[in-house]
Task: structure prediction
Amino acid sequence: MNFLLIGIKNLLKMNTRNYFKLSLIISMLILIVSCDRNNDNKFTRNYILENGTEHKIELRFYKLGVQIFDFENQNVLNDTGAVFSQSVIEDSFAPAEASGAFQGADSLIIVFNNTRKSKIIWDGDNTTLEGISKNLFSDEVYIIENNENYRYVFIEQDYNNAIDCNGNCD
Result:
């Protein structure tokens, strides 16, 4: 009880400058606590890469030159219609992007039958494309389905545009 009385006495002794600081801190705390961060503002965005060719496709994702994951062999699209899918959560504070769904990858090598390959090195405005005309890190190349699924289908033209690597695409 004494603690409460001492606190009230100290508050009454505060000058105007200290009141301003205290009210600013309390206001900021109330604002932070009252921000609505529930699931109502969150959306799942699914990025789907589909094999529309007759060729086996292997997707190799890299970050800063190091292969970062193999998606438990989901990154190999053996047959026509095979899909690779990753999801990312989007909310009003953090808009989703393809690179987020690909766990922050900044590069992608696409290998067709271990005979041809394409390469995307994503660096914002300085993106490098080799053997492919579309940047799969950009939402603009995806077909949007139900405002939730972002689908890209590899076609024979993607295979034909890929660079011949003479059976050694490592």
About this structure: The CA atoms of residues 24 and 30 lie 10 Å apart. The radius of gyration is 26 Å. Residues 2-35 form one domain. The mean pLDDT is 78.
